[in-house]
Amino acid sequence: MSALSGMLATPLVWLAVTLGVFEACDQLSRKSGRHPLAHPVLWATPILIVVLWVSGTPYPVYKDNTFALSFLLGPAVVGLAVPIWAQRERIARLALPILLSLTAGAVTSIASAVGILALFGPPREILASIAPRATTTPVAMAIASQLGGIPALAACIVLFAGIVGAMGATPLLNLLKLDDYRPRGFALGVSAHGFGAARAFQVDATAGAFASLGMALNAVMTAALLSLVAALL
What we know:
By secondary structure, this protein is an all-alpha fold. The chain folds into two domains: 2-79, no CATH class; 81-232, no CATH class. It has helices at residues 2-8, 11-31, 40-55, 59-65, 67-79, 81-86, 88-93, 95-118, 124-130, 137-147, 151-175, 181-203, 205-232. Helix 12 (181-203) packs across helix 13 (205-232).
């Protein structure tokens, strides 16, 4: 038992388990034709939770042993600038529509989440935690902290919103008969941040580039809007 515990405490094991589980779920997603309900993150997350529970591994141990994956998120996000740069001329021509869409998307995202939840009379820290739901996790945690929210809760909400957005956006956009990959991608990036961008790249390179742009700009716009709100409160 001590030998097993020692093996489970090594980074290589948990890196291999994490990558293996995700790859298996991604293969199932591919075989399903990228069906929304077969999203790899949707299944990989609970599977890993069960593995940690069965093995008796505390989450802090798992987090420390998979730090390399978390570290690589930084370069991966920076790498999204490459497809954006490749589309720079098209983006420049659409500057005004992009700005208007970004503003509408950011305001709607904040107002809808806070407005609906406010009907149930939750504590202020809960409202502050859900307000930045459409931004990336680090941005949402920072904003929630500034507004007096709960950063950990904000992170969970962001992950949930991203998965739901990535799963539901393509069927919804198909239903709306929106064939232009530029607004499709931008809408995905604004509403579902990194998950949306990843999904957009699976569909089309142009959609992925505009999703990356939407994700980046929405993080800035949401941070600016909520920082203004915080200053006025």
